[in-house]
Amino acid sequence: xxxxxxxxxxxxxxxxxxxxxxxxxxxxxxxxxxxxxxxxxxxxxxxxxxxxxxxxxxxxxxxxxxxxxxxxxxxxxxxxxxxxxxxxxxxxxxxxxxxxxxxxxxxxxxxxxxxxxxxxxxxxxxxxxxxxxxxxxxxxxxxxxxxxxxxxxxxxxxxxxxxxxxxxxxxxxxxxxxxxxxxxxxxxxxxxxxxxxxxxxxxxxxxxxxxxxxxxxxxxxxxxxxxxxxxxxxxxxxxxxxxxxxxxxxxxxxxxxxxxxxxxxxxxxxxxxxxxxxxxxxxxxxxxxxxxxxxxxxxxxxxxxxx
Length: 307
Ligand SMILES: [Zn+2]
Hints:
Elements: E1 2-5, H1 24-33, E2 39-42, H2 49-53, H3 58-65, H4 71-77, H5 83-106, E3 108-111, H6 132-142, E4 149-153, H7 160-166, E5 172-179, E6 192-196, H8 202-220, E7 224-228, H9 246-262, E8 267-270, H10 279-297, H11 302-306
Parallel strand pairs: 1-2, 1-3, 3-8, 4-5, 4-7, 5-6, 7-8
Helix pairs in contact: 1-10, 5-6, 8-9, 9-10
The structure holds zinc ion.
Residues 155-157, 230, 232, 272-273 line the site of zinc ion.
Family: Belongs to the histone deacetylase family.
InterPro entries: HDAC_classIV, HDACs, His_deacetylse_dom, His_deacetylse_dom_sf, Ureohydrolase_dom_sf
Organism: Sphingomonas sanguinis
């Protein structure tokens, strides 16, 4: 049984003038529904405003929730913040937090949205409104659910917002492996950054991931991993610069799962970047990730364990 967190508000109409592929969340939902009984669904509550304000500037939170984000921030985000987008922006961090809580119980859970790693304290950026990873991590440690969270970010773009929002904390550590020449031009400082050259292939990517993530986790010993499983390192991605194949991405999830499993660390995944014309192909790559992680990490036979 793979625990999946999904909110109907994730699937929205594209606001006018948006280049972001909003349809992929519906595609992810439909592909996972086709898995039938193998998937257990949870609908998250909206994240309480106080937890948004624990990470984001309260003025920016108000701008979003009241759908009055000024034009310069709208441009930086990449789409207008309508009331519908604002509602979705409260559902997504609720989903990442809920996935983390389910992962602590079941070994693994996936949020079908999220990974909004570019959002900063006082503005959205790069198609991200609120930083669900930072919001969920801060709530987990401040409610003493866990002592330390590792945010592991494998999106092809650096997790700059996550790094900035959690800088200086000992209870949240951040790892980002990304294409060094890709957006954002000005990088933030994660606890550990791994910048890759353009064109890195499956073997190069997986070797660098293992060589850096294993010592990172062994040094920081997190109680849970929040994993941004962006699929934009894919060779044909419109905004990637790497050359990782579909098989390479699946091998990445197997490696991540095995590294977590070997250390007994539960893992909650989010989606992340994935850009191109074929929305269903992108959705399929996200579902590949969720199913690969879930099959390896979800506790076996929970009924027998309880008995
Ligand atoms: Zn990305």
